[in-house]
Write a structure and sequence with these properties.
Elements (H helix, E strand, L loop, with lengths): L3 H8 L14 H21 L5 H12 L3 E2 H8 L3 H13 L3 E5 L7 E5 L1 H21 L5 H18 L5
Antiparallel strand pairs: 1-3, 2-3
Length: 162
């Protein structure tokens, strides 16, 4: 439980208080960061014919392929019907293939093609300098703290998910 001056530090970020200030609201700051990042990355990805949702799918499949579509949707933070449309576009571009799982025909497995692997490699080359630029000046300890804090905020929301 927060007390005294500890509580004051949180009041200006709490939309339920008269002290609320948008620039102290963590979710505004996170959204502002992601929006700016996406604006920069989107323009660069477009040069290779990719959009941000397709890039997310490539990055997720870059960790492990094939992968169930539902798992990709969860990792990409998009609903399954939206992912289905993204996968249709990516299949038409020959970046991925989809097939029923041999273990469970209700599960759709998504796999990178050779073109998808090349697209992933190119997208990583595009994204890497932006990542390097945005994280410059952070020490390894600060970076680990940032990741830890973001994970904690995410985990704190979990019980509230409908």
């Amino acid at each position: 439980m927060r007390k005294g001056s500890d509580m004051d530090a949180f009041r200006s970020g709490n939309p339920g208080t008269p002290d609320f200030r948008v620039k102290r609201y963590p979710f505004y700051l996170l959204n502002r960061l992601v929006s700016r990042y996406n604006l920069i990355i989107e323009g660069r990805l477009r040069t290779m014919g990719l959009d941000i949702p397709s890039w997310r799918v490539l990055m997720i499949l870059g960790e492990r392929s094939p992968r169930p579509a539902r798992e990709i949707a969860e990792a990409a933070v998009i609903n399954l019907s939206t992912l289905t449309r993204i996968l249709q576009r990516m299949t038409a571009l020959e970046l991925v293939t989809t097939a029923p799982s041999p273990e469970d025909g209700r599960v759709t497995l998504v796999e990178l093609t050779r073109e998808g692997e090349e697209g992933l490699r190119d997208a990583r080359l595009i994204a890497s300098p932006v990542y390097e630029h945005v994280t410059r000046g952070l020490s390894p300890e600060e970076f680990e703290q940032l990741i830890s804090l973001l994970d904690r905020l995410h985990d704190n929301l979990e019980p509230l998910v409908p």
